[in-house]
Design a protein that fits this description.
Blueprint: H1 7-11, E1 21-25, H2 29-35, H3 40-61, E2 65-72, H4 80-103, E3 106-111, H5 119-132, E4 138-146, H6 148-164, H7 175-180, E5 192-195, E6 214-217, H8 227-237
Parallel strand pairs: 1-2, 1-5, 2-4, 3-4, 5-6
The structure holds farnesyl diphosphate.
Residues 26-31, 44, 47-48, 51, 70-71, 75, 86, 89-90, 93, 142, 222 line the site of farnesyl diphosphate.
């Protein structure tokens, strides 16, 4: 496939007002595969390629944080075959991509619940997290076994334990403390949420962090999503007026 040209779009971007954090719901892999008479696994494989392209363009632009939703706490309902394939794909990606992440100074992050993930996936994750921990150019968060409600529940549980241990008083619980107990602790909230595949829902993604994010939807299925689409979303974002509840 010839390299995608995008210089014209790059020129339209105001480099002084980039979104600090872009979050993406990578949806439509199954439909992409079905439309080609291929198994769903082929859609996920193609989805991983799209993810690479989007990571590359975000890194080139200078986006500080990119978060991609790869597997939700609800995705366990899929067939054992599909779940098994996705887990294998994650391990493959984590082991193969680490060198490239280090070359590009990308730091990996994990959002989600460790409990329930197979040991070999956690081992691959921990290795990649460790190996990229000191990289500084971009943070790439993979949300795997992630659910916004689960994340909030884990945060509340952790805060309750801190109160019980006498480390904090109930009166000290505020929005900052809650945010500090989420998987995204210390990271900026997403400025922009991208959802391809024509679906218009949040699907339990970053429920707390998306409070003031700008949404951008596309009818394209995720495997068809490219660098031009990402740049188009950023250009559109830069024309929005964000008031954060103010006048
Ligand atoms: C949603 O599309 C997609 C997923 C549940 C999996 C996302 C995974 C990838 C893009 C693979 C690459 C990820 C990594 C971390 C290497 P769907 O299957 O629900 O599509 P459908 O709605 O058309 O059925």
């Amino acid at each position: 496939m010839p390299a995608e040209q995008y210089g014209d779009l790059l020129q339209q971007i105001d480099m002084t007002s980039l979104p600090a954090h872009i979050a993406v719901i990578m949806d439509g892999n199954g439909r992409w595969a079905a439309a080609r008479g291929l198994p769903r696994s082929a859609g996920h494989k193609a989805g991983a390629e799209a993810m690479r392209a989007v990571t590359e363009i975000c890194r080139e632009l200078g986006i500080q944080t990119l978060t991609v939703y790869a597997f939700s706490t609800e995705n366990w309902k899929r067939s054992a075959d599909e779940v098994g394939f996705l887990m294998k794909l994650f391990v493959e990606y984590l082991s193969k991509e680490v060198d490239l992440m280090n070359e590009q100074d990308i730091r990996l992050g994990f959002l989600g619940k460790r409990e329930g993930l197979p040991a070999h996936v956690l081992t691959a994750f921990d290795r990649a997290l460790d190996s990229t921990a000191n990289n500084k150019s971009m943070q790439l968060n993979l949300a795997i076994n992630y659910g916004g409600r689960d994340e909030l529940t884990r945060a509340v549980r952790s805060i309750a334990a801190q109160v019980q241990a006498g480390a904090i008083q109930t009166a000290q619980i505020d929005t900052n403390l809650l945010a500090a107990n989420l998987d995204t602790a210390g990271q900026p909230d997403p400025d922009l949420l991208i959802r391809p595949s024509g679906e218009l829902r949040i699907s339990n993604f970053l429920l707390w962090q998306l409070a003031y994010s700008e949404f951008w939807y596309s009818d394209k299925l995720w495997p068809d999503f490219g660098k031009r689409d990402l740049l188009t979303a950023v250009i559109d974002f830069q024309h929005r007026s964000r008031r954060f509840g103010g006048a």
